[in-house]
Amino acid sequence: MRYDLVIFDNDGVLVDSEPLSNTVLAAYLTELGHPTTYEDSIRDYMGGSIHRVHDTIRERYGKELPGEFDGEVLARTLAAFERDLKPVAGVVDVLEWLQADGVPYCVASSGRHARIRFSHGTTGLEDWFDETRLFSAEDVGRGKPAPDLFLHAAASMGVAPESCVVIEDSPLGVQAALAAGMDVYGYTAMTPAHRLAGATQLFLDMGVLVDLLKS
């Protein structure tokens, strides 16, 4: 394989969490007086860190979200995960191939460490990602679309950015990977292909990812 490290986004790539988390976020923002539809949440916040929500509300409404916002969003999201979260179909097959072939891989997510660990524990993915393979926007100063998180993951894994490929499903993630000087494969199961413009490859079915990585 031409890459020395495969970096996975978490939400929407490893775990099928985007419908759940964006439903929760849209409902809570609306409850707080900032009307937000599910589609709005997907468009504005998918792939971003919680700081992006604060910045967007501040810019649009000139108001601050309450101090308990982050904790409440996390609690509501984890409750939804516990009920309904599943791994993305076909992703375990990809992880099995990477492990069998000795290809290094990790996860670099805009989500907090607690959320990533919970989602993996709920879906049975915890055996694939120990702490040495798990990176969060909490670890860096700026989240996606800044390149910081992906650069941090690559440096921690001891791999040059140009030898990495990122598996992403959000426009913010694609921008971050390109800014980091990495190839990026855009997963279009939830995101229209045109919103992932600039990706090195686009794919709709996780079942084809192994073949793409081999080519």
Automatic annotation (TrEMBL):
<dbReference type="InterPro" id="IPR036412">
    <property type="entry name" value="HAD-like_sf"/>
</dbReference>
<dbReference type="GO" id="GO:0046872">
    <property type="term" value="F:metal ion binding"/>
</dbReference>
<dbReference type="GO" id="GO:0016787">
    <property type="term" value="F:hydrolase activity"/>
</dbReference>
<dbReference type="InterPro" id="IPR006439">
    <property type="entry name" value="HAD-SF_hydro_IA"/>
</dbReference>
<dbReference type="Pfam" id="PF00702">
    <property type="entry name" value="Hydrolase"/>
</dbReference>
<dbReference type="InterPro" id="IPR023214">
    <property type="entry name" value="HAD_sf"/>
</dbReference>
<comment type="similarity">
    <text>Belongs to the HAD-like hydrolase superfamily. CbbY/CbbZ/Gph/YieH family.</text>
</comment>
<dbReference type="InterPro" id="IPR051600">
    <property type="entry name" value="Beta-PGM-like"/>
</dbReference>
<keyword id="KW-0460">Magnesium</keyword>
<protein>
    <submittedName>
        <fullName>HAD family hydrolase</fullName>
    </submittedName>
</protein>
<keyword id="KW-0378">Hydrolase</keyword>
<dbReference type="InterPro" id="IPR023198">
    <property type="entry name" value="PGP-like_dom2"/>
</dbReference>
<keyword id="KW-0479">Metal-binding</keyword>
